[in-house]
Amino acid sequence: MMPKLVCQVLALVVAVGMIGVSSPGHAQETSGSPVLVNWTAPASLARLARSAHKVDFFPLSNHFVGQDNKIFCGPTSVAIVLNALRPRDPGAPLTTHSLTPEDRVWMRPGSNPFLRKYTPHNVLTAKTKTRLEVLGKPLVIDGKRQRDFGLQLRQLAQVFRAHGLAVTTRVVDDQADAAQITREIADNLATADNFVVINYKRRALGQPGGGHISPLGAYDADSDSFLVLDVNPARAPWVWVRAADLIAAMRTFDTVENRGYLLVSEN
């Protein structure tokens, strides 16, 4: 049975697609769009309906979870992508953190209620930054011991590689070409079984907060915008962001270098 969220989205996409892309509303939406278009806005549904670069949207939304603390945007993004690439993976960790021993007192003796899936709380391994370091325990960076909350771009790539995935790291520095970035990401979003995860600065988009990590779900060529599947919906909704604005938000400095994006797939 298809998950309820995906069924609803498919119905909306079909309904909006039947309106026709040559309608006056379409013309108004593409000329003078706001910098951010909320996922729930009619313009958002129109963009998704006409997009030719939305293959990634459906597996990501099917496995989407929101982060449950302010720091775990990186681990949350990793878990979503791993589950999208490896649904029902028999090698995935058991989600034992969800039930305490007290919770299990009245369960059938010897039963195992846990599921195998990737979660923000089990994707960090011995080959990655530790959970405590992500939460702020000091570590050595460039010879200096300091606190480094969350995951930087290369640290995020390390987590994916620790699970055997292939990762291409793109640091968006001053020399990075915006048109080439847009083409590369759009091509990825039109191809199955690989995903894009971005590391950007919220304030560069006019949102509250600092550095953030989330996967991308789609690209709409008519409005030249990307759909950010924000993993912290308690703070900000999924939004469409113009390519130039999103690239500018990635072209910001983190702890040791600029932010950027990852292209992630199986080897």
Question: Which key features would you list for this structure?
Answer:
267 residues; alpha+beta; seven-stranded antiparallel β-sheet; two-stranded antiparallel ribbon; 18% strand; globular
Poorly predicted ranges: 1-7, 10-34
Instruction: Give the strand content.
Output: 15-25%
Outline:
globular
Order of helices and strands: HHEHHHHEEHEHEEEEHE
Mean pLDDT: 88
Describe the structure.
This protein has 267 residues and is α+β, with helices and mostly antiparallel strands. It is globular. Mean pLDDT is 88; it is low at 1-7 and 10-34. Helix content is 31%, strand content 18%. Strands 1-8-7-6-5-9-4 form a seven-stranded antiparallel β-sheet, with helices on both faces. The protein contains nine helices and nine strands.
Concise description?
The chain is of the alpha+beta class. The chain has helices spanning 4-17, 24-30, 42-50, 57-62, 73-85, 131-134, 153-162, 178-189, 243-250; strands spanning 36-38, 139-141, 144-146, 165-171, 194-201, 211-220, 225-228, 239-242, 260-266.
SSE layout and pairing:
Blueprint (H helix, E strand, L loop, with lengths): L3 H14 L6 H7 L5 E3 L3 H9 L6 H6 L10 H13 L45 H4 L4 E3 L2 E3 L6 H10 L2 E7 L6 H12 L4 E8 L9 E10 L4 E4 L10 E4 H8 L9 E7 L1
Antiparallel strand pairs: 1-8, 2-3, 4-9, 5-6, 5-9, 6-7, 7-8
